[in-house]
Design a protein that fits this description.
Layout: E1 3-5, E2 12-14, E3 18-19, E4 28-29, E5 32-33, H1 41-54, E6 58-60, H2 69-78, E7 86-91, E8 93-95, E9 102-104, H3 108-122, E10 127-132, H4 139-154, E11 158-163
Parallel strand pairs: 3-6, 6-7, 7-10, 10-11
Antiparallel strand pairs: 1-2, 4-5, 8-9
Helix pairs in contact: 2-3, 3-4
Amino acid sequence: MKYRLLGDTGIKVSEIGFGCRNFGGKSIINGVPTTFGDITEEEGTKILLRCIELGINTFDTADTYSLGKSESRLGNFFHDFRSDVLIFTKGGAIPSLSTPPFEIDFSHNYLISALDRSLKRLQTDYVDVFQAHAPPRSESDFINLEKAFDIIKSENKAKSVGVSIGKNYN
């Protein structure tokens, strides 16, 4: 496996990372699947073992993936060797009964509490990268993100922070 520095963060990521959207098993909100496939915990363990064998050290998840179950499974698996892997997670998207099945909350209080819940599920004191789950759409979103990111980094809950460039749910 080859590794690269992630921008100027000092974080050395494997060139291939493992995306964990479907890792927690099937999840449906308001009739809309929020994951693809239905990976069991046993299958997930085999996948993670193979990732480690191949030298993959970067795992990307989010609090909404399988309603937190993806993070829980990663936490269970990596608990004993957390310092050997990089965990990226995201927050700010909230499952809802609306269409699309997510709302966005970039208030600093929500983002910090979302990360705190993620840390519990991941069984760790920090993540390597915490991201807003969608691009900000307003000046107030940017201000809230900046405030949340400053607090998160000052409390060492994330080594680095950023914004996912995925689908904007607003």
